[in-house]
Amino acid sequence: MKLRELRLLALAAVMITVLSGCVAAVLGGAAGTAMLVGDDRRTVGTVAEDQGIEFKAGNRIRDKFKSPHISVTGYNRMVLLTGEAPDAATKTEIERIAREVENVRGVYNEIAIGDNTALSARTQDSYLTGKIKARFVDQQKFNPVHVKVVTESSVAYLLGMVNRKEADYAVEIARTTSGVQKVVKLFEYLD
Asked: Alpha-carbon distance 12 to 128, whole Å?
């Protein structure tokens, strides 16, 4: 096999593994989006703003820095930055870039200083996110659309507009998911 074919085969295997644990991914494009917007506590406009923030911040960061592995997640106009930067100055500059994107209310800078993680570690993080989301659905303690999960280096970051009881359920489910090392709450409480 050619190197290109091997890469495509490896990518397909990774995607199957990642998607197998994610119930939301099975719902698919338009149906998943319709469910998300219909049940989401954010307005349709805020959901669109969050997507725009992620896109703009991600592009601006990639335009300035070619090597850091950075993920940008927007939720209710708050930005979560995860990944790795080579030094503190780069981490600070990435946060500044994200803060300057229009409509951003604030930034949670959870970027680690160090070398980029391996693809296998990122794949494991995606798998953990899928496991947590699937457990949210299985437990039926709250509407899983109300909590966004981002996993980086086996740390689960939980974002959402929730009441305290929903937050407690989400944290307990994430905390007891095999492979999760730590849970970080970034909720906005409704009560």
From this structure: 18
